[in-house]
From TrEMBL:
Keyword Membrane: yes
Name by which UniProt lists this protein: PH domain-containing protein
Originating species: Streptomyces katsurahamanus
Keyword annotations from UniProtKB, A to Z: Membrane, Transmembrane, Transmembrane helix
Domain YdbS-like PH positions: 81-157
Transmembrane stretches, start-end: 32-50, 56-75
Keyword Cytoplasm listed: no
InterPro entries: YdbS-like_PH
Length: 170
């Protein structure tokens, strides 16, 4: 654990405690399979219809299908093991990434807006994404793969905490 208190920042750098909802794995896997099916179809349909290009288009479709299926089998579980989040009275902590991990910390005094999002596929899995917009050039922080009721409670809690937190003078 590292602290930046000597630099006027009272946020402790540490791994976030909370995992995403287990349904996020199926949600990510479904997203991957949809993209794979679309990419495979874009190559396979013309391959079936255009005789001179049939060989290379169907071979490319097979490669896309195999790579997409491998990605859908491996990466959602890996992402689930890496992704973490936590909200304290001082900050929002998020760790994401598979190959390149990214840790983001947003002090409450820097939060500008809190939103929840539920796309059609997220709704089908009972999930939601909480988006925290900050006064940072890095942009927003997303906590995706949350139970939709938990996401609503987090958005409410963040709103209450940020309203009670004095703004940052920097």
């Amino acid at each position: 654990m590292t602290s930046l208190e000597g630099e006027g920042i009272a946020v402790r750098l540490r791994p976030p405690n909370n995992r995403l909802d287990q349904r996020a794995v199926r949600w990510w896997r479904t997203q991957s399979l949809i993209v794979t099916a679309g990419g495979t179809a874009v190559l396979a349909v013309p391959g079936l219809l255009i005789a001179p290009a049939r060989g290379w288009l169907l071979a490319a479709a097979a490669v896309v299908a195999v790579l997409g299926l491998a990605e859908a089998a491996v990466f959602p579980g890996w992402r689930f093991r890496v992704h973490r989040w936590e909200i304290t009275d001082q900050a929002v902590y998020v760790r994401t990434g598979a190959f390149q991990q990214q840790w983001r910390i947003a002090p409450m005094s820097r939060i500008q807006t809190v939103d929840t999002r539920r796309g059609p596929l997220e709704r089908a899995f009972g999930l939601a994404t909480v988006t925290v917009t900050t006064a940072s050039s890095k942009g927003e922080i997303e906590i995706e793969g949350l139970d939709h009721e938990l996401a609503a409670r987090l958005a409410e809690r963040l709103t209450v905490i940020t309203q009670a937190t004095p703004g940052d003078a920097t």
